[in-house]
Amino acid sequence: MKELALHILDVAENSVRAEATEIKISIIEDTVVDILEIIIEDNGIGMDREFLDKVLDPFVTTRTTRKVGLGLSLFKAAAQQCGGDLTINSKKGEGTKVRAIFQHMHIDRVPLGNITDTIIALILADEKIDIKYQHIYNNNKFCFDTTEIKKILQGLPITNVEVISWIKEHLKEGLKELVKY
């Protein structure tokens, strides 16, 4: 994939299919130690040990529409190509945690890409799922949580066009401020 945000979206879409009610996305960039860490965790149905042992095989998928599931294996390959790795922890009935680490300045690391559109796509995929997004760049931190926004909205759907437009601008501004220093 041409950007890491698409890998994040792919993994988070797995969380949606796994009936998660909460998806947490954390991106930690530390340019001093040259690390980029991406963590996606959910409270979905999780995987049993047998399936977890096979999940990185591109020919293993839970989808019925196709017989190939390349997402996790491509994400792992992208991390390994950049001096990192990908791990998956999951427990049946408790959820899944995917953690990818990259050498931040590695010449082969694709850009993070449009994380704003990734978050918007997840909100629009299922408004009942709570999205918690945290992005740390060196010592600066930006947090976004749909549960807080839903409280403020007092019943107005989070998928309302004006709300989505505000969220998009809020994310863009927050991320711009994050890397400003």
From TrEMBL:
> InterPro entries attached here?
HATPase_C_sf, HATPase_dom, His_kinase_dom, Sig_transdc_His_kin-like_C
Q: Which UniProt keywords apply?
A: ATP-binding, Kinase, Nucleotide-binding, Phosphoprotein, Transferase, Two-component regulatory system
Coiled-coil region(s): none
* Pfam families in alphabetical order: HATPase_c (PF02518)
- What EC number is given for this enzyme? 2.7.13.3
**MF term (GO), any:** protein histidine kinase activity
Q: Please write the reaction equations for the catalytic activity of this protein.
A: ATP + protein L-histidine = ADP + protein N-phospho-L-histidine
Name of protein? histidine kinase
Give the GO biological process terms. Answer: phosphorelay signal transduction system
Which residues are in the Histidine kinase domain?
A: 1-106
